[in-house]
Fold:
Amino acid sequence: MAHAAVMTTPANRELGAGVYNEKLGMWVFLGSEVMFFTALIGSYIILRFANPGAFGAPGQVLNVPVTAVNTFLLICSSVTMVKAFAAAHDGEMQKMKYYLLATTIIGAAFVGVQVYEYTHLIHEGFLPSGIRPGSHLAELAEAGQLGLGVADPGVAGVYGSSFYTMTGFHGFHVTCGVICMSFVTIKAFRGGYTQADHRGIEVVGLYWHFVDLVWIILFTIVYLI
Amino acid sequence: MATAALAHDAAGHHGDAHELSFIRKYIFSTDHKIIGIQFLLMSLIFLGIGGFAAMMIRWQLGFPGEAFPGGALLPETMAPGGIVLPEFYNSLVTMHGTLMVFFAVMPLLVGVFGNFLIPLKIGAPDMAFPRLNMWSFWIAVPAGILMMAGFFVEGGHAAAGWTSYAPLSAIGEYSGVYTGQQIWLLSLAMLGLSSILGATNYITTVVNLRAPGMGWFRLPLSIWALFVTAILVLLAIPILSGAAIMLFFDQTIGTHFFDATGGGQPLLWQHLFWYFGHPEVYILILPAMGVVSDIIANGSRKPIFGYHSMVYAIIAIAFLGWIVWGHHMFQSGMNPSLGMTFMISTLLIAVPSAIKTFNWMGTMWRGQLNFHVPMLHAITFVSMFVIGGLSGVFMASTPVDIYIHDTYFIVAHIHYVLFGGSLFAIYAAVTFWYPKMFGRLMDPFWGKVHWILTLIAFNVTFFPMHTIGAQGHMRRIYDPNQYEFLQPLQGTNTLITIGALVLFGSQFIFILNFVISWFTGAKASANPWDDNGLEWTVPSPPPHGNFATVPNVYHAPYEFSSPLVEEDFLPQNRKLDGTVGSADTPAAG
Amino acid sequence: MTDSHEFQHPNYWAVWGFLFVLTVTEVGVAFLPWSKNLLILLLLGMALWKALLVALYFMHLRFEKFRLRIFVLAPLPLTVIIVIAVLTEFVR
Structure:
């Protein structure tokens, strides 16, 4: 009896938020995530405003084309995620399973591309502590080719610090999302979700879209500005 | 049928048909009442450790050059010959603040009473996410253990103050502390996660799980306060987490967030920390105000005066609390225009607090006052909080603060609001809800002895700090006698220390009362205080699932001395004709 | 029984298309030789537009009750406050 009603709130519960507990809980939790990324991204904005010369021009240090494609990948995974939810809502359970699988795979691909990007950057000499002396980037910086306002690579410290921390923690959030998504996908393939009750899909979907949303902002601020 | 469905819905597992093992029932419990008690035991331990750190600090200031009793047991790196080293003193000062704020007062108010009271007082069988609740506690415990481990690492524990300002905290070379500071940061990050999960739980529960008839303006003020506090926790703690991560990276992987030589901004730490830190102090006081409101109404046998304005005051304090953080930074070298902005907003925030104070007094006015132990503590809260609030008005004024910033005047303020305020409220609340938690009453005689000794020793300890602070005695200082102008204050420092020792000793009366009453205290009925809350309509202690049937709420929370009934109280689920209501419609579908 | 979840699915592929176009435009705009401030305005505007599309259509905020939207909107002023306040430190 209670089962069919779990995706809604029972009549006498209209005292509440009008959504079931798990969904409300996820939205509430996302509020805290907004504040967490505020601290990181806000600090980046502040540090950059305070010391613009320490940050490179778009494309000079970071790889915009690859990351643009990666951004698009993540957006695609958001689409497959919401299509999975829509399929569950409409009772098309087969479609739901494959959309979930697609989301997991694309999400994992995003993380993979990020890892590749990191290794490439580190190899080039772009570290959390700044530009490694004697590296390829150090040479470019000294020759004034990086769009850095100062010739001393050591002062590019905050650039590396903020880049790796922001994108790193975003990547960490995506990884957690991929892990959760894997569990959800496995449960889906085992028939754990029905048209009447697919709360887990909606809730993990909200988290997934949020992570995509943060990346949309991050990509613009960090790579394009 | 309705109850089982409700229990299934909210508790997420089937009813209490099967017996749980001891471990599932008491260690890894998902029952909010057990988790509340777990937080209580953990926090009381940290309250003791934090207090002990304070004793060592006070000993150094009161009896400089004399060995601390038992100090010979401490290692040479901390206190050779029983006399603390300056470096260890800095760690003590840091850890006293850290343990008291994060591992004592916050869990005592939010972890204990948030957990224990919310489901009971709103008429719910448990929290919205009971398993998440269990995780909240079991993440907090290793966080605490990790924090204590910091004492045993090379270089000593974090020693940059509980506020951990950069660059002292960011660059190990400046203080000699490396691992200790990193442990501090990791521990707080873990505790932060525990708090955020808890806040998510509390907010969802209060919004969605209220019993039928429990509209927003029928919620007891303790629940309002805990709900608003949970929102503050949810939004403020992540700022600390972010900042702590950046500081951790500065310490470990060579980032330069707060390091000027690398292009960073030391002031950024202060802004981020206090953007969290100021809402944090309202997290530490709002629940205290909430429980005090419940208890004063009970002890006055009158409804709370101005219930609606009390609610709006709580909300106003929470709102304004976000735009006052700069008053901790008047001396930091920040933009002077910001200084003026923060002075105005800080002076403003005194208004809602004052409204609450007058309303407590209005509640007591012409009430049938019953000075039971919780009432004594609650009244003490109001008076001590007023003193703390008044010193706050001085500090809010930027020109005055330039003179008293980082002196003992600030220390006096902190302790009048946190001890005189929060801790007395905690004593009130623990004593008041003890029977509901444990089924027994704490001994009232020893309760009163503890109260009066604490009240007197507290004021002997902290009031003189206003004076020495105004005379220039700075805080966190190891040896004030190195300054000639402070030498005449030694006598006062010794007096404060004596007060502090008596204060610390008196708390053992409370602990003994707490522990002994658990086993031999007078058995408690369901409603020993003749109170109106829903928790008093179920046995002491309540069974798993709390309510046999979902209660239906008919009244506001403080219907004391109502002319409509014979008794001087009227529980929220009791109709005027004396019958008890249960949900008119089944809970689910 | 009442299904508070009753809504018409928006056209998710259309939203995806919008997002694709916006992303490509952003990358293009970023390398135009215009004034820095104008670029920042345009890029941030586009990023926010994309974020809003995701929030309103993928996270279904367009179809949720106002009560829920309040929870979402609540942290946003706090984000603005800290960034603006600390930026004033560096305004010369």
About this structure: Chain C touches chain A through 49 residues (CB under 8 Å). The helical segments of chain C are 12-30, 36-58, 66-73, 75-87.
